[in-house]
Amino acid sequence: YFDHCPQLDWVCDRDNYAATTQSVFFCGSIVGGLIFGWIADKYGRVPALLGTNLVGFVAGVGTAFTYSFWSFCVCRFLVGMAYDNCFVVMYIIVLEYVGPKWRTFVANMSIAVYFTFAACLLPWIALGVSNWRVYTLITSVPIGLSILTPWIVPESARWLISQGRIEKAMEILKKVERVNKKKIPEAVIMEFKAGTFYKLLL
User: Fold this and answer.
1) How many domains does the chain have?
2) Structure confidence by residue, pLDDT tens digits, 100-110
3) Contact status, residue 148 vs residue 48, Cβ threshold 8 Å
């Protein structure tokens, strides 16, 4: 397997470059948490989820075409901005829809299973392609599917309610009602609306 260090000549007196780019990556993670956290609170969970994944997609693909230390650093900083935040925003959306009884199973177990499976698969992909640029493309290009997020993932009803968008929240909950084949009693809906409006007025 040929990694980026010898190909980019990060050897001898430049052997600290790899560690530096890793530090830049985690600096990006800190900045991304602040930016996408603000977007999630200000504009909604779905825009933040879409944004963090698209940044990761563009920067990940860009990494495969870098040939200098600085261009590599820029791409890794941007990938760092997306790293963790794509998990965190998705995790928040799930938690805001699932009741306490099922949160461990739905949120933690689902992420753990897929994350573990992917983590076990990655070394074999790297061994199979034996090229860090191809490997980077293989692991980055699928993130482009996140462009479909607004049509698949519903906005958090809790966030909509916090913004006073009660009718939009009820519209989404009605869709959830149809998918789950459960009927919410009209009295519960009316009580919910009345209580929500009252809290917003306080």
Assistant:
1) 2
2) 777 778 777 77
3) no
